[in-house]
Each structure stands twice: as C-alpha cells, then as structure tokens.
C-alpha cells in the first residue's frame, strides 16, 4: 500500500509532497465553476497515461460531454478504451444508482483491475438519502467498503451554500484522507477574481498549507505552487 499516486496536475503534486498516498481517498470540494470535474478528469487521464486502469463514474455530466471535454484538451480517450470505464448513472433512479455504487462497484474494480476510481460528484449520491442519520450511515459504509479495494479514490463535492469551506452535506471532508478545497479569491480592490486551491488536510503525510492560485488552461490545469495570490 506504500507509495505515491501522481495526481497529474502541475503544482498540485508538489503541494502533496509527490502525490496522493496509494489506496487513499481524496475529496475535491468546491463551488460551481471552480473546476472540480476538470481535476477529476486530469487525475483519471494521468492514470491512463501511466498504463493504469481507471473507472470514472459520473452522476451529473453525460458521457459524450465528458469525452468532448477530454477531446477539447487534446486527450484522446478512445486510445485507452480498453482500460477506461466511463459510466453515467442517473441519480434520479434511486435504486439503480444506489445498487450500482454499493453492490456493483467493488466487483467492477476487481474485474477490471482498476487502480484509480472517480465519483463525480459524490454529493449527488449523498443527496439520495433524505434522512440525515441514514445518509451518514450509508456514507460511512461506502467509504469503509472502498478501503477494502486496492485503488485510489477521488470524490468531488459541491460546497455548502452557507459555508464555502465545507462540502454540501459536511461529511466527505471528515471521511476522506485528503481534502482539496477549490475557491474563488477576490482581490482587495475587487478588480480581479482568481481561482485558488488549498490542501486542507492529508492524513499520514506532510503537505503544503498555503493557498495557491491555479488556472484551467486549454490542455489542463496549472497550479502555481511557488506564487502568492496577490
């Protein structure tokens, strides 16, 4: 289980002291427009480029839109079709979404030999449970189930509308080993808006605690790990 998994985002791997810990769970938390899906896709594509097998589960974007985004970035996902499982689940179909994630995902991981798994966004899965106690129980159970699998898991989550520093339901940041928070930072004169990133926590590893600017560029993401915001 030892070792590092490169995230594949320039600057972020430096902030993570070489990457995520292998077989750990990472949550990417951010408000709309901060690039959560782009970070998740970059993580998946890095794995494919390294010869790994990847499962990407989308609860929001249609498969063709995700593939179009990858093609726009110059990433030819079709080259990796034998190692890339891209699944679109409809969160409005409660039973299908629950059973697919809870019952079928472990078997899919083992049958494909996937070492990277993405669920984008996990907050839609959380939202399927209207009772708070059941929601908590299901999320704890899901995370424990995933810890038995030999893969590195990345989850994306929207922020809480009342707290831009926390996830929508306030659970995933406590369950994950690593939490990466994406946010908007406005300049003191309110003349500029920047995207910024913070590694809020990383269990069992040192990591940067600074808030760093980043850009979503034509071919990927660049985190300016040596720069200051203003």
Automatic annotation (TrEMBL):
* Keywords per UniProt: ATP-binding, Nucleotide-binding
NCBIfam families with a match to the protein in the record: KaiC_arch_3
Q: Does the keyword Protease apply?
A: no
At the highest ranks, the source species' classification is: Archaea, Methanobacteriati, Methanobacteriota, Stenosarchaea group, Methanomicrobia
Molecular function (GO) terms listed?
A: ATP binding
InterPro entries the record matches = Circ_KaiC_arc, KaiC-like_dom, KaiC_dom, P-loop_NTPase
Listed name of the protein:
KaiC domain-containing protein
KaiC domain sequence ranges: 3-230
The organism named in the record is Methanoculleus formosensis
What Pfam families does the record tag this protein with? ATPase (PF06745)
